[in-house]
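To illustrate the input format used throughout this study, we show a single complete record. The first block contains the structure-token representation of the backbone; no residue identities are included at this stage. The design step must infer an amino acid for every position from geometry alone.
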């Protein structure tokens, strides 16, 4: 019988960065089980490519870690952000949002970013961070187009994560979603490159400028 997945949820009033905090605790051996941590306030968040990510109280600052053996058995590690990002997008869509997932790790409403994901691997854990503008956003971004309670969103999202949805089920839907990304660019080795002619592979990587591009970030 396949082992079930359970993720404990912990709320912390304030952290510099949920991602930095969790990675540190895993390295120090203080976290040794599947766990999700969210902070009501985050003062020094970390985004893609180690960029600073600022947010305000009322937004989502969530990090969770799952042992690799507890993930869906067909999930390619290069597409962790797509997988968990699309699960969030589907949950938001079920509540009336028009959110969509830009390849490989950004959540958008229309042409404005509302959040994103960062992922990494430490020891036998996959660590995923999700930031989402529920109430506040920078001028260049926007906020989620529906009202949802922060705690309810986290609890419902983790329940979806615990279902261990197969990658092939996610990817079947994401093929259609990916077409929206063609109007945008992605940062490839420090360069902004158009996704217009990108070829999407079954593992979530893309062929771009005659290069296979993978993303675990």
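Output of the design step:
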């Amino acid at each position: 019988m396949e082992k079930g997945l359970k993720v404990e949820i912990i709320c912390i009033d304030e952290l510099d960065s949920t991602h930095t905090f969790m990675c540190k605790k895993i390295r120090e051996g203080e976290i040794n089980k599947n766990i999700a941590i969210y902070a009501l306030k985050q003062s020094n968040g970390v985004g893609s490519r180690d960029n600073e990510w600022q947010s305000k109280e009322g937004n989502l600052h969530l990090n969770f870690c799952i042992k690799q053996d507890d993930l869906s058995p067909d999930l390619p590690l290069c597409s962790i952000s797509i997988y968990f990002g699309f699960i969030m997008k589907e949950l938001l869509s079920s509540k009336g949002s028009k959110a969509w997932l830009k390849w490989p790790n950004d959540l958008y409403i229309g042409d404005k970013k509302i959040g994103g994901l960062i992922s990494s691997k430490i020891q036998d854990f996959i660590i995923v961070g999700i930031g989402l503008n529920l109430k506040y956003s920078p001028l260049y971004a926007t906020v989620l187009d529906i009202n949802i309670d922060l705690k309810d969103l986290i609890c419902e999202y983790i329940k979806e994560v615990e279902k261990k949805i197969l990658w092939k089920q996610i990817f079947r839907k994401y093929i259609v979603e990916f077409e929206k990304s063609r109007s945008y660019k992605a940062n490839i080795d420090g360069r902004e490159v158009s996704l217009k002619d990108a070829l999407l592979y079954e593992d979530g990587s893309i062929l771009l400028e005659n290069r296979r591009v993978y993303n675990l970030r």
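Structural context for interpreting the output: The helical segments are 18-27, 80-94, 150-161, 167-178. Residues 48-52 have pLDDT under 50 and may be disordered.
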